Amino acid sequence: MITLYAADTANSSKIFIALEELQLPYEVKPVDILAGQQFEPALTELNPNSKIPVIVDSEGPDGRPHTVFESGAILLYLADKTGLLLSKEPVARSEAIQWLMMQMSTVGPMTGQLIHFARFAPPGNDYALARYKSQVHRFLDVLERRVQRSEWIGGPNYSIVDIANFPWVRPLKLFLGDQIEADYPHLTAWVSRIAERPAVARADEAKARLATVFTPPEKADPVKVDRLLGRGAYSRT
Ligand SMILES: N[C@@H](CCC(=O)N[C@@H](CS)C(=O)NCC(=O)O)C(=O)O
Hints:
This protein is of the alpha+beta class. Helices cover 57% and strands 8% of the residues. Glutathione binds at residues 9-11, 33, 38, 50-53, 70-71, 108, 228.
């Protein structure tokens, strides 16, 4: 049995989708990040970086429970555990892992910063917003060219690489406007192909069920929000 520590976030989505695609039995432990539960010892013992998602596999590679944090590492772990969603052929595997690393190092962090400055920056932070918008368009150009040439981002088959990118690319319309569908037609078709998968619908439902137990943003303690965002008393300059 796999225990998934998660919230209603894009990085959590990756793991819901992978577990549903792989049809692995799992239970979910919601982590209310607006209430600061990621900083509690129970979670920090599993992930010293105090972030979700985290999984604990009760039957790890040596038969004992095994903990994995960082969504890219979790996806690789699940692919290796099952032998699915990642090629075992060394060249194809290396190619897929390159694109997985690009998601982890660029697609997630640049989009995360765009969302942060769009939602949380006080007025007047146009430089930061413009920078992260440009960075997001930069990787969208790269992904658009990739899916023009290859049906899937990691290579010829649907893989953990598509699962890693999808929850970040799907909502970008909200931040960049409907025009991106016309600007990135191949990527838009790729989003639709993935959104139609039954496992993705099941993952969305499982994640939506979680949302009901979390602190709504308007009720969040401002001090806990400052800690989450590293600002106010938690700012380090
Ligand atoms: N690189 C990490 C990022 C994890 C991450 O940023 N998780 C967010 C939610 S998507 C989180 O736990 N935020 C709480 C915090 O930063 O305090 C991964 O891919 O797992």
